[in-house]
Amino acid sequence: MTTPRDKLSTEEKIVVFFDMCSSSTILEDLLATNNKGALRDVLIETKDYLRARAVEHDFIFYKFIGDGWILLFPPAVGGVALVSFLTGLSQYFSAQLKKRVLPRLQQTPKVLGLTFGVDKGPLVCLEMLEQTEYIGRGLNVASRLQGAIKNKDKNPAYKVLFSKHSFKDLRIPKGIYKVDSVTRELRNIQGGKRLEFMKLTLPM
After folding, report:
1. 132 burial class (0-12, 13-18, 19+ CB within 10 angstroms)?
2. What is the pLDDT of residues 17-47, one digit of tens each?
3. Contact 172, 179 (CB under 8 A)
4. 2: Cβ–Cβ under 8 A, 6 or more apart, which residues?
5. Sequence-ordered list of residues with C-beta below 8 angstroms from that of 73, at least 6 positions apart, any chain
6. I need a surface site. Which of 15, 121, 155, 156 has the fewest CB within 10 A?
7. Which residues contact 182 (CB under 8 A, 6 or more apart)?
8. What is the pLDDT of residues 123-147, one digit of tens each?
């Protein structure tokens, strides 16, 4: 039953889903030497970094899922501003990883860092259990894009996979950044057909 607080609305958002490479391998290594707090500290520092910049960069720090995060930006955000923010976040995360985790690892994984998926579209916003929740295709696509970066990429860290329409709407100038057109299959998206996406390497 719908209550007065269960309001529904539709909001256009740019969805950024990002995740940490080799997190399971890192956690297992840290657990073996009783250093699991090192990874916790990196995650908490990243959370604080995001919360401190949410108002400044006008995004919603929506969810933390395991070792991944979902950020929701307004549709008017500029492409250069978004890439600049993702670069700053990546540089901060990399510094925290080097300071808190790498000195405690017995063996350093080949791939370290963050990978990003970005899509744009309408999300249904609703109040559920006294919390604001979002549902919609953009969330699913951004998550799948983030997971697909590692496909056929030996060094996926600090790269962003955009849906073509989000890349076009963001007006990201190709001459400033390293951008490649790639084809990927996204699980449970359009029947798993191979589709074209834009992959951007952040200027770390």
Report:
1. exposed
2. 999 999 999 999 999 999 999 999 999 999 9
3. yes
4. none
5. 13, 14, 15, 16, 57, 58, 59, 60, 82
6. 155
7. 152, 161, 196, 197, 198, 199
8. 999 887 778 899 999 999 999 999 9
